[in-house]
Structure to design on (260 residues):
């Protein structure tokens, strides 16, 4: 039950340390500010608390996706009439990693992507932003094809033995588990189109993806917790879980087809 206690950067730092976050850690965060109760300073206080705990020897990563930059031909909620497709394609802004806002990702990653010393990867839909020691290593070689696959920031976090923080969110927000969908190699392959700014001009680019489906992620996460110990606790007023990214991805590889 939520109460009237106001969270500050200092109280958040204590909570982050208590759950097991340490300096020099590589950490990808999936967050819900509204679940944390009243936070003095809002999203910026949460980000600064994370940065102070990790220090510049650590790395903070957040998904900064922009899934609205897609072909109107594929829209279904609402479905767009065919005669409008070309007009929408012509007038839709192209992806620019410096200016394109996130879409339905929450206020914390939206603020994070705009901050000094934060970089963002150059993918029109599945970008990530990062701050800290390993940010260039994680972001620089993000491929256009298979944006959550082996040439994505997710795979680089895996290589670095990184951690996932679910901060007021559940496993259906755990983007890392999509890497498993690539690794098991059975999901349908599809083509997507998105607008991007390339050499200061907008171009519609075509790229290859798989059909992502997080419907089974909560079940797999629950099974994972039954068989593995994780660090959990309260940050602010939000339920939080700290999980080894490599461990949950390997577990998902083994169980996805049984639950998908």
């Amino acid at each position: 039950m939520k109460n009237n206690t106001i969270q500050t950067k200092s109280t958040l730092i204590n909570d982050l340390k208590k759950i097991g976050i340490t300096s020099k850690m590589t950490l990808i965060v999936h967050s819900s500010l509204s679940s944390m109760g009243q936070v003095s300073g809002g999203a910026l206080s949460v980000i600064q608390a994370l940065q102070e705990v990790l220090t510049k020897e650590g790395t903070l990563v957040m998904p900064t996706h922009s899934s609205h930059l897609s072909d109107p031909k594929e829209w279904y909620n609402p479905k767009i009439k065919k005669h409008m497709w070309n007009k929408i394609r012509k007038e839709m802004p192209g992806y620019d990693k410096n200016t394109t806002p996130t879409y339905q990702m929450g206020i914390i990653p939206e603020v994070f992507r705009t901050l000094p010393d934060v970089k963002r990867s150059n993918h029109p839909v599945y970008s990530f932003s990062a701050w800290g020691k390993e940010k260039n290593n994680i972001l620089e070689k993000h491929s256009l094809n298979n944006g959550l696959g082996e040439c994505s920031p997710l795979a680089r976090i895996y290589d670095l033995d990184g951690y996932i923080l679910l901060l007021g969110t559940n496993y259906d927000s755990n983007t890392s588990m999509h890497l498993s969908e690539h690794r098991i190699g059975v999901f349908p392959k599809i083509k997507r189109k998105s607008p991007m700014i390339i050499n200061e001009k907008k171009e519609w680019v075509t790229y290859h993806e798989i059909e992502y489906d997080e419907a089974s992620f909560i079940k797999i996460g629950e099974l994972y917790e039954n068989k593995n110990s994780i660090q959990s606790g309260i940050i602010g007023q939000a339920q939080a879980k700290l999980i080894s990214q490599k461990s949950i991805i390997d577990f998902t590889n083994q169980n996805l087809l049984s639950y998908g």
User: Anything to note?
Assistant: The two ends are 33 Å apart (CA to CA). The mean pLDDT is 96. The chain has one domain: 9-67+98-189+214-259. Residues 24 and 58 are 3 Å apart (CA to CA).
